[in-house]
Fold:
Amino acid sequence: MWTNAFAYAAGAANGYRGGTYALVGPGWSGTLPPGVRRIDAPTRWVLIQPRVHVRGQADLAAARALLDGITTQSLAEFLGKPAPPGPVYDDPAPLYLDKSASASALDFLNPSQFWEILSRAMNENPPPEDQIAALLPMFKPLGLELGKQWDASQVNPLVLAAMDRAAAAIGPLLATLPAGHVANGWIVPPPSIGNFGTDYQTRAVVGRIGLTADTPREAFYICAVSDNAGRPLSGANRYAMTLHENPPFAPPGFWSLTMYDAASNYTVPNSGGRYTLGSDDSLTTSAGGTITIYTQHDSPGEALVSNWLPSAAGPFYLILRSYAPGPAMVEALSNPRAYSLPGIQLAP
Structure:
């Protein structure tokens, strides 16, 4: 519930193979059947997110079949017994100003609902004990206490007004705050990405713009919001990005460059249905072995179209990923010299 990737049932450590696992909640002390491997979950609520490598439209049927094979059930059901009754919730549904925006935009119709939902989620999924002791007391003046549902009517009106202003500003602020250091136009996250510990700022930013980020051993992410001169990326311009060294990865991984609309945080609709370019594509390579990717709103022409990533008409950003990244990519999060980041330049 605190967005940490605390386990990979089919990740690098397991050779990307499957298996049967038991997700065990806090305080559980039962016995598991033979052949079932235990994963201790730090919170009652967890999110399981399968990631399947799809190499194109022809691969979709196989990918769907693989996803259909990933199932969850209670331990009782696994043992052939009736499932125990689940908890009953009466939580209010989130109400947003813009229903088409992603939930991570935190664009609540009433900003106070941010604090109400935070309180409910925190009480069912408490933070680690050291954070409860060291940090949570600071929030008591706001009416936020563990084991007690936050009630706007019990908060001083002056404090409540300030909390509402803060809640309304959180989404836009986190959408523009870099999660890491900036190098050659790219935002390079710290090694804590994916399993953040006490790196609260990175966790908050990732929760806003890239929820469920992987740990570096599983995937490498860098985000570009500006060109190599520091100018914001915009579909009003044309750009060229030359990869002198392809992002390294180990089988069965891959690398990709994906385009996102800065306003919606979604991929950019385009007539060709092309949202990403990478190692799965037939990219034109120069005689010297480099790959130049052209990023612009309109086609760069037939000779360059194989390396064209269509951009939004307005502001956009790019994310370069490597799944099952090579050691140089992982090291680049703390050592900029480990991998040379490609500059994004204005094209003629």
